[in-house]
Amino acid sequence: MDAHKTASVQRVYVPNEYTVFLSRQDRSKLEGYERSLEQELSGYLLEHARRRGYDLLTRPTVEFQTDERLRLGEFGIQARLVKPPAREGEAPSQGEEGHTMVYSAVRERDRSRPKRPEQAVGALVSTRAVVSFDDRRYVLDGPVATIGRSKSVECVLPDPNVSRRHAELRRSESGEWAIVDLGSTNGVKVNGRRVSSTRLQPGDQVTVGTTTFMFDVEQ
Question: pTM of this prediction?
Fold first, then answer.
């Protein structure tokens, strides 16, 4: 909701329709109380809008759907601003569909890895890497996220020219991100320049294989 605000002269409008995409395994765990959870999330979104002073065209709705491309622990969220029908029987007017924001669960090996003293200090600066391409938007917690063709990596690119484990996004203790080539066949380019490793800035265009994505950072 906060990421999809639309400001008019005196009001701030936010999406009122949310689709949550889950893997088949995760959605099966909601059997029996999925409808109750949708209503609970709807109530939470309504209260959040009231606290922030946002305007809603209708009460927010939440719907769960299955996305076969998602793995266990991943979920996607798509938000839309839907205008209610002006007359009875008229179809609602739906706004343009935005990117589906895909979130990955933190890897267990990162949770269990003991932190060095200097890492504990760096943990105060928490940022997430954002990878956007086509209609997909991956939000990666880090501190390390692998990009590749394999379904076992954090950011999956369905491109035959991408290696199974092509590159890594690595977060520094200051919250900055870098990309490192993992010895891929076709290499990594940042803003058209071939690199083995380099620090990334929001808005950088990164090419792996024949896929180009935009890099961004979320606090």
Answer: 0.50
